[in-house]
Write a structure and sequence with these properties.
By secondary structure, the chain is of the alpha/beta class. It has twelve helices and ten strands. The protein has a single domain, classed as NADP-dependent oxidoreductase domain (TIM Barrel), CATH 3.20.20.100. α4 links the parallel β4 and β5. α3 packs parallel to α11, α9 crosses α10 and α9 packs antiparallel against α12.
Length: 363
């Protein structure tokens, strides 16, 4: 009995010390803000690091960046030092090279990380190397696990809606992947509102895993999300992971009217596939961002990112960076808050015209 008491006391002492150490570790992080991943119980930093710049092994993604494993390791170390342990990739990013580099950079750190990946876009010219069929998703998950050098993916996204595959087939496959432990949470990206709602309804009807988070484009100059998707996500108690929060690099302050483009993603052709933005409108937005940045001692991208972080339904904002300087600047967009007056100024000049039937008004 005496030995048992001593063992219990020792166990309690070790547990308490571990708990105290975890508090110290948390406080030593650079005051990162944490939120829930949509409707799940998982706590995540409000910023995640997007790895589309890793690799650059094909023409499209080379325009975004060509970060190799050594550079990636340094960027990930910086993220972890600042409390960002959430990393977003996809199998299509440089046709798997992004996942491979992320896996190498996370060696010895995987237990500290939350990793999100995606499938659904075309991976090769083979007919079944695309979409969200059971055939492709099962192969895609196994390939991603191998490239990431891990046994599980924390968050797995359907990258886009596949109209050729019954959504029941896709969701049952995802449910099996969660049950098997290969995937822990599921989400979707680039779905329309009706596609998302149908998916949630099918999951509820068949008692399948539900999408807990939506990943979509949202920025000061890209606010279409607010008209259809945002009300749905609020109603269904989900959340948003916002991608391209600086509007394909247009909100960095480097893109100015009647001035040559500064070196970076836009100059390299990285805006291919993005929606067009009127030059005069963009200049007005940048001028307002510049004024506010000067007033509060922040940079233009920090103000643009902070506006987004303050918007309802936003669980997480995916930041990217080609180098340490860009990463540290983007990390500096949190742990402070724009004033109500500044938020209102930015919202007023960027509010888009309502699409039908929203302009009819509620009754």
């Amino acid at each position: 009995m005496i030995q048992m008491y001593n063992l219990n006391y020792l166990y309690k002492e070790i547990t308490w010390r571990s708990f105290a150490l975890s508090i110290i570790t948390y406080k030593n992080k650079r005051d990162m803000e944490y939120r829930k991943l949509g409707s799940s119980g998982l706590t995540i930093p409000v910023l995640s690091f997007g790895t589309a710049t890793f690799g650059g092994t094909n023409e499209f993604f080379r325009r975004w960046g060509e970060t190799d494993a050594k550079e990636a390791s340094r960027l990930i170390d910086i993220c972890l030092e600042h409390g960002i342990n959430f990393f977003d990739t996809a199998n299509v990013y440089s046709q798997g090279a992004s996942e491979e580099i992320l896996g190498q950079a996370l060696k010895g750190k995987r237990h500290d990380a939350i990793v999100a990946s995606k499938a659904g876009f075309t991976m090769s010219d083979k007919i079944n190397h695309r979409g969200t069929s059971r055939f492709h998703l099962m192969n895609a998950v196994h390939d991603s696990l191998r490239r990431l050098d891990t046994d599980y993916i924390d968050l797995y996204f359907i990258h886009g809606f596949d109209k050729r595959t019954p959504i029941e087939e896709t969701l049952k496959t995802l449910d099996n992947l969660v049950s098997s432990g290969k995937v822990r949470y599921i989400g979707c990206s680039n779905f329309t509102a009706w596609q998302l709602m149908k998916s949630l309804s099918v999951s509820e009807k068949h008692n399948l895993e539900k999408f807990v988070i939506y990943q979509g484009y949202y920025s000061l100059i890209g606010r279409d999300y607010e008209q259809e998707l945002k009300p749905l996500i609020e109603d269904q108690q989900m959340g948003l992971m916002a991608w391209s929060p600086l509007g394909w690099g247009r909100l960095t302050g480097k893109i100015r009217k009647n001035r040559p483009h500064a070196p970076g993603r836009i100059q390299a052709g990285g805006a291919v596939g993005s929606p067009p933005v009127d030059e005069d409108y963009l200049e007005t937005v940048i001028q307002t961002l510049e004024q506010i940045a000067d007033e509060i001692g922040k940079s233009i991208p920090q103000v643009a990112l902070n506006w987004l972080v303050q918007q309802e339904t936003v669980s997480n904002v995916i930041i990217g960076a080609r180098n340490e300087t860009q990463l540290l600047e983007n990390i500096g967009s949190v742990n402070w808050t724009l004033s109500d007056e500044h938020l209102a100024r930015l919202s007023e000049i960027t509010t888009p015209a309502l699409i039908y039937p929203h302009w009819v008004g509620e009754r």
